[in-house]
Design a protein that fits this description.
Bound molecules: dihydroflavine-adenine dinucleotide
Structural class: alpha+beta
Number of helices: 13
Number of strands: 21
Strand content: 15-25%
Distance between the termini: 21 Å
Radius of gyration: 24 Å
Amino acid sequence: MEQYDVVVIGAGAAGMFCAAQAGQGGCKVLLLDNGKKLGRKILMSGGGRCNFTNMHTEPAAYLSENPHFCKSALARYTQWDFIDLVNRYGIAWHEKTLGQLFCDDSAQQIVSLLEQECQKGKVTFRLRSEISAVEKTEQGYAIQVNGQEVSTRSLVVASGGLSMPGLGASPFGYRLAEQFGLKVLPTRAGLVPFTLHKPLLEHLQTLSGVSVPAVMTAADGTVFRESILFTHRGLSGPAVLQLSSYWQPGEFVSVNLLPNLDLSAFLNQQRQDHPNQSLKNTLSLHLPKRLVECLQTLGQLPEVTLKQLNVPQQAALIEQLQNWQVQPNGTEGYRTAEVTLGGVDTRALSSKTMGANAVPGLYFIGEVVDVTGWLGGYNFQWAWSSAWACAQDL
Ligand code: FDA
């Protein structure tokens, strides 16, 4: 029987980084994955350029039923630590917006970095690994992999969430947690586009591809100021993805389509200067023409000139454009979601080591845990930080 100090299940961001750190710390490490390739999500991430961290990483950018849990790991292995590692590998990067750091060249560079870090730690990789059983033994754990038994002192579960099943996502980590008596909080898709009810969708479909800066507000008051994108299925774009993590079925969201404009003052001024100008042409000065036309067919925009626009109409228009109430039909689900909310309940884990308090030698890191970041590099930073914290204990 093969024997290891540490077996890591899942060769994604968290698993590879943890395996590398544990190996470099002197452990004999085996890294298992059910896929054909290492770091598949990393390769897909950030449009192929991997948004590997965010300069503004802070605990407030994470959702969890236990919001304090992420603090320790994020403070001990920070965004600056990972940037330092990226720099040591000579990987050129840039800030795209809002502190989001991307590779100049390709996400493959981050996977190569992790592979080299694993090689430094003499980590054994095994891809296409089907794990059929995990049992607790006196010395640690016995794992059945592709019909063979592997034994290990410590077991690290880094099998991720349910988003993008095409990239190997599976509920493996949740089932394993339950097998060992840990609670798993209900999961749902996060950072995911909204779908819309048919009547609204039919109107908005003509806008497919149109993007506008917006401020979106969730029912709980959470606000994001980024752009939204109209698609043939509904609404997407950074503001929508961010808000989706805070949205519950049935709730309305508020969209301000003119977040940088005092619309009332603008309309009053335009009315003075160009009383015979149509409302449609006036609004087209600040909104894409297609959007204005669509609002007109939706009946949300009176077909009037500015001098004809009366006070109640103006008030209704301002409400419509700056506090547009949209009730999503749902989300596109795990098929396109970037992350999975919920997961292994952190109240059963040590925030210092990621170890299960009641099950010695068993650890959960990365997305499988109930810690989910905003869009913008926060999820990879959680993967690096939780992996590092865990590796210090192995
Ligand atoms: P991850 O999902 O990366 O890895 C889990 C691994 O476990 C996979 O390799 C899987 O094959 C393996 N596995 C699952 N079940 C198994 C089983 N039963 N047996 C063996 N192996 C198993 N975040 C960010 O910060 N910046 C970004 O730019 C992006 N971009 C992005 C784009 C897209 C398209 C997606 C889907 C997601 C992102 N994300 C992101 C989110 C980010 O990819 C995600 O949070 C991390 O990859 C999570 O890392 P983990 O290592 O925890 O899981």
